[in-house]
Amino acid sequence: MAQLSGRTRGRALSRLATAAIAAALVGATAGTAVAAPAPPVPAPLKAAPAAPRDAVHPTAAAPFFPLFATKASGEVYTYEPNLQGGFGDRERLQDTDSRGITASVQVDLNQDGLMDGLYLRAADGSLFFSSAPENEHDESQPKLIGGGWNIYDLILSPGNLTGGGHADLIARDKSGVLWLYQARQDGTLGDRVRIGRGWDIYTDIVGRGDLNGDGKTDIVAKDRDGVLWFYKGTGNINDPFASRVRVGGGWNAYDMLLSTGDMNS
């Protein structure tokens, strides 16, 4: 995949998000997706200016991702990390309405530490994927991955969990079973693999890259009592996480957890 840098990359990724949202909404409305039996499927804070992407040296283990935020009215904004532990000024994605999108997942498929793809789930359960443009004139269209994704109440991509070299997806169904989907370079997904049951004890499950410095992708999860737990990645598709380790309590002081990667590099 071609490398874009600086302002050019920022514009390209904004266009990626705008096109992906539009395609997902149009596709869902047109009824192009067929549900699969089992899917192969704020007010802004005052902040310092965002760091130029040319000054960033991310890796797959410590990626650099923007934050996407939506308002109830459907407006979508991006915030770039400023490398000081915060975010730069927000930028609105014009002509974009996120109403009808029920989940979004940024991914780094080529493992260079930068976002190069976006999964979106429409209200009817259809999952779409869009890759980052090769250049400013690239008008490649989002693709439909499959239907039936509304069986999941949580979808995320902490990174490469299987050793396959791409950012994989994990999804939790409404009975609390966690599933793993191994990703391919083009954003398509392999058959799902069961990780385990009982994950509905958590209100939040997040991760972005390597959290403990061993080179493998990890996650953290917050339970209903506000205790945060760490799950060390193994790189094994059939058993991707080691036994959980308690991080600490009191995390129910926060109503949301998220991870965009390295924010103070």
From TrEMBL:
Keywords associated with the record: Signal
Family annotation (InterPro entries): FG-GAP (IPR013517), Integrin_alpha_N (IPR028994), TAT_signal (IPR006311)
Matches recorded under Pfam families: FG-GAP_3
Gene3D superfamilies reported for this sequence: Tachylectin 2
Coiled coil spans: none
Signal sequence region: 1-35
PANTHER family: PROPROTEIN CONVERTASE P
Protein name as catalogued: VCBS repeat-containing protein
Organism: Streptomyces morookaense
